[in-house]
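input
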Amino acid sequence: MIKLSRLLVAAAFPALFPALAAAADLAQVYRQAQDNDPQFIAARATLDAGREKAPQGLSGLLPNLSLSGSTTWNDNDLTPRGGVGTSPRYNSNSYQLSLTQPLFRWQNWIAYDQAKLQVAQSEANFELARQDLILRVAQAYFDVLNAGENLQAVQANKVAIAQQLELAKKSFEVGTATITDTHEAQARYDLASAQEIAAESDLEVKRRALQAIVGNEPGLLAALRKEAELSPPQPADMAQWVGAAEKDSYSVQVQRALADIAEREVDKQRAGHYPTVDLVANQGSSKSYFGGNLIDTDFKNAGIQVSIPLFQGGGQVSRQREAAANRRAAQAGLEAARRGAALAARQYYLGVANGLAQVKALKAALVSSQSALASNKLGYEVGVRINIDVLNAENQVYNTRRDLARATFDTLLAQLRLKAAVGSLGEEDLLRVNALLDPRRDVPTSAR
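output
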């Protein structure tokens, strides 16, 4: 009855019994990161700020309405020559309501165009940050999985070496082996112990890196399915990926927006030589005393105001030259972004293609190394193999398992980075990778 009660509590509160809870997968970790990663939160706030550029730019085309007023206490001492002085004291009050509607301010229209481009730039920057979050989460997640797989391999290798050490000691005791076998096995066991300490340390570091993104302690993480198959890039044509990257990469889109803004800035500074035309209207009232009489004045006026800049000390011409230089710099930045995107697409395409081949080869190598280990163990038992042969075969299995795990995770990351290089990486791509994980199969997420 007591056991049944404990099981019911464990089912109701899986957080208190992590061993009974399903491991978190990549999609769940990504959603946690969306809410907790400081960089992504900052990017979202920056996007909100960037979107305000549009109404700010539009404001330069809309009416400007202002209200002003004043009240003044007057204490005067008036003494005419040869006459009797007076000391009038009074308040004078006034207010004025002014309306200005730009009719022709070409630089304001250009500023509005720039504001819309700045919004597009902000949105591209946010998409870049969103893709970066996916890649950082996937990198940190797979780093933890790889460190866990490595720790498991080290520990399995240590256990196997311990068994071989025990066998060598027994064989020496009965006189069927030399003390050299024992020393060799002991040396390998000590080395495996040192590797285990390093693997535990590496796992802890990787866990903390993931925690810095998601904001909480990583629990159990779903590992790759044993039967998981990696897919090649589609389309299987590197030139198409390169072309898409040069056109659609978000880094290219950001630089393109900057180049367009710089282009419009040249036109904006040139418009500083153009006349401006505004509709101006005023309405107000003032009250004051003059000669002992209250004077109450109401006024209304409207008109067209034209301003023609003639000379501004050379400042406007200098700003034109500055804008032209910035335009050249922005165009060079755009070309650099295109080349960088093309290089990234080539790099990650080859990374996926070569990674798939490497994974296939390492899977075959793992089968072969396991067969070689079994043969060496059997040969040692019958006396045709020495202890060092078995230990080398054990180490080969460990190295192959480690390399296979690393190659698999690197290939998955290369697939995501290839999508990011062409600006098409989204949550659906993360979910496709997530489908390769098994929540019922986990690797250690802590050293102890």
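quick obs: Residues 1-20 have pLDDT under 50 and may be disordered.
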